[in-house]
Amino acid sequence: MTNCETCGSTEPIGVCCVPGVPYSAAYCGKCFAEDASPFGILRANISCCLSTKAFDDFGEFPWEGGQVIAEWALEERTYLDGRYMTMKEALRIKPITRIEIEEFDRMCSEHDFKAEMDEE
Asked: What is the pTM of this model?
């Protein structure tokens, strides 16, 4: 089995789904008890809900205030820099940037999803 995907512990106890995300992760007993999920997975999920317009309308931290991202998503717990915290706290430490969202939008606009689906 792999390491805990939340804190990196070498003693994972099992695999569970990440709340609100179509992904399952290996968890250690401590992260399972803390109800903490992998920061990168939760951050990516929140990133998918943002747009450059959100940065224009709501400033540097558009996920705060409940207009763009549901509060429950920001209250999810994670592990970052050696401690457990909410995603709202974690995103203050490692925020999602407008440049990341612009790059994501560019990559999506260049990909032909319709052709890919037609092939299936």
From this structure: 0.81
Residue 67 included in any domain: yes
Structure tokens at 12: 């994972």
- What's the Cα-to-Cα distance from 15 to each of 5, 6, 25, 76, 80, rounded to whole Å? 10, 11, 5, 18, 20
What tokens does 32 get?
Answer: 């399972």
65 within 8 A of 19, measured Cβ to Cβ = no
Residue in the structure block whose two tokens are 């990440």: 18
Q: How many residues does the chain have?
A: 120
Q: Tell me if 108 is assigned to some domain.
A: yes
For 62, residues 6+ apart whose C-beta sits below 8 A from its C-beta are 50, 54, 55, 68, 69
Domain-located, residue 93: yes
**Residue 89 in domain:** yes
Q: Which residue range(s) make up the domain with 88?
A: 36-112
Q: Please tell me the least confidently modeled range out of 34-48, 51-65, 69-83, 93-107.
A: 51-65
Residue 88 identity (one-letter amino acid): K
